[in-house]
Q: What sequence folds into this?
């Protein structure tokens, strides 16, 4: 081990085993060192510092993929240097990107997959923002053509929406109109939607896999409500589907569910390649129904690094390797392989959910039958001495990261705990987790008084 600890609070001491003659014996933590060091020494320092990170396999908080096979890793290392935006220099990668977008459009039942337009992004958050920008721009063009003001756009979405949508509204000057969820309406389902819609509404976001709980929002039901609103008011409101997680689950495991371009109001869909697309982090996708719903003025044609190319992105340099990895998985797994992988995750999630439901203190919020994610909460009066935050802390001591956090807005008094099942969490590991939860609940129930607090009043977890 190269790093022994801090020296005076702002230095990193180097283990003498790794120090070579003429090298420094310590590094400043947050300043450039004056002298060079050997690659092996620098590597060991960084390697040892990173050991303090958690075990990715036991991280049940994240949706992001943490494992790929050896062939994928080999392909990854061969493509580290590719810049996805530089399509002139890497035309083969650019063509593969286009083919992936068409394959995804076909997966999502676009009327004519070859007539759609889509792009890879650094993640589903960027993809979501591009979808939001397109809706805002279409709304602005229509309002301008009608001679109406364009200074007060709003976007309607669930109070349980992922934070990227709050960022979109903040960064691009759109008023967010949050429809609160409740015990009666656990997701945005169209209930009282008319109260949030007006002539300044650029669109409605429907989520296929709510981050808080994993539940699907009923896209077809939301569209039916918008049909009613249009008949009553004349307002034609589009839907963008945030399929960050469900976009790679529903087509394979719930193929009969109509949530995608089979629903006429859906103009765009985003998903995350590095979640249930099964690729290493940083890859997202966004696809529009056809080219008519993506304003031309959002597409740039620029001369860059020797070529003239179209670009649709919020950045100008990002990895191309993940796009190749996505194409590799499409070829490697095919529809049948994706179905087996995703169904295995669903089976493990529902097995875990049934085990949690059988424990006396707990009530399920959902059972993991949409995406392989579920949440639960403490029954009223289940314990006076401990909370789900205490259970999360006890599990963390054993290496498991199972977050607890408050629900949004009108349900902010309700704390839930959530498990995300990803490829690699086996039935055997799930049983070990259930045994650990049972053991820790027994410990907490045995307490004679309240669990000691460290002064923290808010959960150390964000979506």
A:
């Amino acid at each position: 081990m190269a790093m022994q600890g801090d020296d005076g609070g702002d230095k990193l001491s180097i283990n003498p085993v790794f120090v070579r003659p003429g090298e420094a014996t310590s590094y400043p933590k947050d300043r450039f060192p004056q002298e060079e060091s050997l690659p092996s020494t620098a590597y060991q320092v960084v390697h040892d510092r990173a050991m303090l990170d958690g075990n990715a396999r036991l991280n049940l908080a994240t949706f992001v993929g943490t494992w790929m096979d050896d062939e994928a890793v080999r392909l990854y290392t061969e493509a580290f240097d590719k810049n996805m935006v530089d399509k002139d220099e890497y035309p083969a990668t650019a063509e593969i990107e286009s083919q992936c977008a068409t394959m995804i459009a076909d997966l999502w039942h676009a009327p004519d997959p070859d007539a759609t337009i889509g792009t890879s992004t650094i993640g589903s958050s960027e993809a979501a923002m591009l979808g939001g920008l397109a809706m805002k721009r279409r709304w602005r063009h229509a309002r301008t053509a009608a001679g109406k003001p364009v200074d007060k756009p709003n976007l309607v979405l669930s109070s349980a929406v992922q934070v990227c949508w709050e960022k979109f509204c903040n960064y691009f000057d759109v008023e967010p109109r949050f429809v609160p969820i409740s015990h009666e309406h656990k997701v945005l389902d169209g209930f009282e939607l008319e109260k949030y819609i007006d002539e300044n509404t650029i669109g409605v976001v429907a989520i296929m896999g709510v981050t808080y709980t994993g539940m699907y929002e009923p896209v077809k039901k939301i569209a039916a409500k918008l049909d009613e609103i249009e008949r009553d008011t004349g307002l034609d409101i589009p839907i963008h589907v945030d399929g960050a997680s469900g976009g790679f689950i529903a087509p394979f495991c719930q193929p009969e569910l109509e949530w995608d371009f089979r629903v006429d109001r859906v103009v765009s869909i985003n998903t995350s390649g590095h979640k249930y697309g099964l690729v290493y982090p940083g890859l997202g996708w966004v696809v529009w129904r056809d080219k008519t719903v993506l304003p031309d003025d959002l597409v740039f044609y620029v001369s860059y690094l020797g070529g003239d190319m179209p670009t649709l992105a919020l950045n100008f340099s990002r990895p191309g390797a993940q796009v190749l990895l996505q194409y590799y998985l499409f070829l490697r797994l095919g529809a049948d392989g994706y179905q087996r992988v995703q169904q295995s995750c669903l089976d493990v999630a529902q097995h875990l959910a049934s085990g949690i439901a059988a424990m006396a203190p707990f009530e399920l919020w959902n059972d993991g039958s949409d995406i392989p994610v579920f949440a639960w909460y403490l029954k009223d009066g289940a314990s006076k001495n401990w909370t789900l935050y205490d259970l999360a802390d006890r599990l963390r001591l054993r290496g498991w990261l199972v977050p607890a956090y408050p629900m949004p807005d009108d349900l902010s008094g309700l704390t839930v705990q959530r498990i995300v099942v990803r490829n690699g969490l086996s039935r055997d590991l799930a049983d070990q987790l259930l045994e650990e939860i049972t053991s820790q609940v027994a410990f907490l129930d045995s307490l004679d008084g309240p669990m000691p607090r460290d002064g923290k009043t808010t959960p150390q977890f964000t979506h």
About this structure: The CA atoms of residues 385 and 449 lie 6 Å apart. The chain has three domains: 3-53, 71-329, 343-445.
